[in-house]
């Protein structure tokens, strides 16, 4: 004899229903589990099949695209309560190319104008005595400007991911993230600034064979002070931007990293120029000032280390996050050596104004892409897992730029921003009469070729690097962006220097490259 159990349907928050089974069934440990039929015994011992319908939120899962598009909120407007899952479940909303471009455009232009301002500053200060007689300061320029990639952009990416996955929703969580991350970047800024000065001394000493202790201490004091103050100011700006973007319903991944760079280059270069100039003036009369400045900022290190260690969100990065920032600093310093050797030649003095622009634009765009891919993966699981949406370890250029997924779409949008963006920035430099180069057609062609090639290479490397690090249990937010922005500095400076040399060799006198 078969028995039938009376079932009642209980409405769920998202509109789905679950059957309630009275009697012994309520005590079953299998009750409430999803997706599979559960066998229960009726009063006569025969089996009764009760199908428990899963809720739509569980059926669809927490997918990265949903979080990217809805900024961490889940959509409940779909009427589909099916529990069937295909290999590529459809997202209720999708970011279109237009929406990506619209969100990225304003911060991209803002960041670009920041790099233009930095280029104008470098074009002026390259003629100051401290840059003439302590030319190793030029080597510090890409390394310290790269701190926005090593520290501020990494901070922005880390906080954007935390905001998107709900780790900054309560005041307690927010304060914990702020204090831990601010202390962390002060530790990293002080150490990286000190190592950057050592790299500048070494790279300056090797070609010339000349070493000056006074100049070495000057470089150390200038680098450490600049890194510390710039990171403090920019870190506070970043926190405000991410909190504000969340409240306005904007994806922080699209705006945080460009805005980090918008003032980053200008503030860092202005601080480096002003501090190095002031310390250079004190070098003869008050030689004790430079070592005193170094000692002061290094003495603060234990305080920042203690604060960062007490925060679980930053403790791991404090121990394991040094490799990318130090290697990235070394890579950027090689770019600085190229800049030093090129700008020191009067024939290529005009390169100074364009270097922060091409490096900054490339670094900004690849940082946006890396941050988006990282958030995409974080929504699929934890580092080391292999989500179904992860591409091959070595993606083809076609899959990076021409597939239908949201990250490929954003790569196309970011790449298409290069030419119009640089045209605006070049026009701005020309209208402000910056640099020593007239914008002829052949110069613009060479410049645009270098810029497009730089961004193309960076976006492809980002697609490979972020997934490669993810598969090796490394958080891309902490590891990928320093490498990518440093590579952007090296590739951008190298391609720009090559363009200037080719223009000089073919005799494009109309562009006045050598004036």
UniProtKB/TrEMBL annotation:
<dbReference type="GO" id="GO:0008324">
    <property type="term" value="F:monoatomic cation transmembrane transporter activity"/>
</dbReference>
<feature type="transmembrane region" description="Helical">
    <location>
        <begin position="104"/>
        <end position="124"/>
    </location>
</feature>
<feature type="transmembrane region" description="Helical">
    <location>
        <begin position="255"/>
        <end position="275"/>
    </location>
</feature>
<feature type="region of interest" description="Disordered">
    <location>
        <begin position="60"/>
        <end position="94"/>
    </location>
</feature>
<dbReference type="InterPro" id="IPR036739">
    <property type="entry name" value="SLC41_membr_dom_sf"/>
</dbReference>
<dbReference type="GO" id="GO:0030001">
    <property type="term" value="P:metal ion transport"/>
</dbReference>
<feature type="transmembrane region" description="Helical">
    <location>
        <begin position="441"/>
        <end position="461"/>
    </location>
</feature>
<feature type="transmembrane region" description="Helical">
    <location>
        <begin position="411"/>
        <end position="429"/>
    </location>
</feature>
<feature type="domain" description="SLC41A/MgtE integral membrane">
    <location>
        <begin position="141"/>
        <end position="275"/>
    </location>
</feature>
<dbReference type="InterPro" id="IPR006667">
    <property type="entry name" value="SLC41_membr_dom"/>
</dbReference>
<dbReference type="Pfam" id="PF01769">
    <property type="entry name" value="MgtE"/>
</dbReference>
<feature type="region of interest" description="Disordered">
    <location>
        <begin position="1"/>
        <end position="45"/>
    </location>
</feature>
<feature type="transmembrane region" description="Helical">
    <location>
        <begin position="216"/>
        <end position="243"/>
    </location>
</feature>
<protein>
    <recommendedName>
        <fullName>Solute carrier family 41 member</fullName>
    </recommendedName>
</protein>
<keyword id="KW-0460">Magnesium</keyword>
<comment type="similarity">
    <text>Belongs to the SLC41A transporter family.</text>
</comment>
<dbReference type="GO" id="GO:0005886">
    <property type="term" value="C:plasma membrane"/>
</dbReference>
<dbReference type="InterPro" id="IPR045349">
    <property type="entry name" value="SLC41A1-3"/>
</dbReference>
<feature type="transmembrane region" description="Helical">
    <location>
        <begin position="182"/>
        <end position="204"/>
    </location>
</feature>
<keyword id="KW-0472">Membrane</keyword>
<keyword id="KW-1133">Transmembrane helix</keyword>
<dbReference type="GO" id="GO:0022890">
    <property type="term" value="F:inorganic cation transmembrane transporter activity"/>
</dbReference>
<feature type="transmembrane region" description="Helical">
    <location>
        <begin position="481"/>
        <end position="506"/>
    </location>
</feature>
<keyword id="KW-0406">Ion transport</keyword>
<comment type="function">
    <text>Acts as a magnesium transporter.</text>
</comment>
<keyword id="KW-0812">Transmembrane</keyword>
<feature type="domain" description="SLC41A/MgtE integral membrane">
    <location>
        <begin position="355"/>
        <end position="498"/>
    </location>
</feature>
<feature type="transmembrane region" description="Helical">
    <location>
        <begin position="287"/>
        <end position="307"/>
    </location>
</feature>
<keyword id="KW-0813">Transport</keyword>
<feature type="transmembrane region" description="Helical">
    <location>
        <begin position="319"/>
        <end position="339"/>
    </location>
</feature>
